[in-house]
């Protein structure tokens, strides 16, 4: 209680408290009753006003407010005036409450209306269609290849993309200074690791880990220092196949590759093996399939030859088997490898395999 309040009689103190309230409340009058004027006010402003009104309510109606303390003065009021003093306190308090309530109500309604308006959804607006993703054509083909080999009893192996020189070359019977290192030149890290140039590396890992007999395919990404052109990329995909057991011969290789290509390109597909050379197979052969478009008559896809070159293959070299601790006298096997990118280009009639990695969604979404 202030010094001047002490000089006032109880009735004057009630009146002073009411007056003090009215002065402070003046700025909120425009929100009450007929004067209700919230036009032009933003939601943030209204929320701030509401907070200040709550503070004002505490100041003038709280336990420590001037009006509350006047209730304790009833003892100082002469007995015959007590009833009317009590009434004065009551009506003053009621007036404060109703003013605050009226402003609070108006602000509350305004805030709710603003929030509803800003959060409401216009259900008549046209919807936004979510863009669904597509599997990449290389993934689509890889999955088809995997399905065929799984049905032939092959396991699918996952390999590493960063390799040591040993797995990429030496273990595959390509020693230091061998010319085959030149045709498969790749990228090296500063620590001397190589980005694998072929999926044949997985043959070594798989035999070391699982031993023999083994039947597996290993699809994956490989890297070479090849200049990009319509049939070359420095990064592309291959799939490797390996089968090692007792008594495996070239006939098994031809039968397996032939069956795979018939399931892939149709039952009339003819497979052709041509002698070739790979350091890790002996004998080695490249394999072609009869053109699935012209059936051998000659067309643009097969460059009028009637045949399409697909990959390399052969009987696993005894040195490779020895490297992984398998006795070549007891076991033999075949391996093959082919490029998935070029196969995709063939199947979808693409002129250029570089299209596959330009990440143009308009191109990629055509395949499914
Ligand atoms: C190999 O990489 C051998 N590892 C294949 C093999 C496996 C032989 C098992 C014997 C036994 P080659 O270097 O020919 O072989 O590559 C195989 C296929 O990869 C090619 O037929 C071609 O389809 C694809 N290819 C090669 N270089 C590129 C390139 N720069 N861009 C796209 N595809 C390529």
Present the secondary structure layout.
Blueprint: H1 3-7, H2 10-25, H3 43-61, H4 66-70, H5 82-119, H6 137-151, E1 155-156, E2 162-163, H7 165-168, H8 180-183, E3 194-195, H9 201-210, E4 214-223, E5 235-245, H10 250-265, E6 271-278, E7 281-290, E8 307-316, H11 318-323, E9 332-339, H12 340-347, H13 361-364
Parallel strand pairs: 1-4
Antiparallel strand pairs: 2-3, 4-5, 5-9, 6-7, 7-8, 8-9
Helix pairs in contact: 2-5, 3-5, 6-12
This protein binds adenosine-5'-[phenylalaninyl-phosphate].
Specify the biggest β-sheet. Answer: 7 strands, mixed
Tell me the Rg in angstroms. 44 Å
Query: Rough shape?
Result: rod-shaped
- The overall pLDDT, averaged over residues, is 92
Q: Element order, helices and strands?
A: HHHHHHEEHHEHEEHEEEHEHH
Task: Report the total helices.
Answer: 13
Structural class: alpha+beta
Write down how many β-strands occur, each being a DSSP E stretch of 2 or more residues. Answer: 9
Cofactors and ligands present? adenosine-5'-[phenylalaninyl-phosphate]
Can you give a write-up of this model?
Helix content is 41%, strand content 17%. The protein has 368 residues and is an alpha+beta fold. Strand 6 and strand 7 form a beta hairpin. The longest helix is centred in the N-terminal third of the chain and has 38 residues, at 82-119. It is rod-shaped, with a radius of gyration of 44 Å. The protein starts with a helix and ends with a helix. The mean pLDDT is 92. The structure holds adenosine-5'-[phenylalaninyl-phosphate]. Residues 198, 200, 224, 226, 232-233, 236, 238, 240, 278, 281, 311-314, 335-339, 341-342, 353 line the site of adenosine-5'-[phenylalaninyl-phosphate].
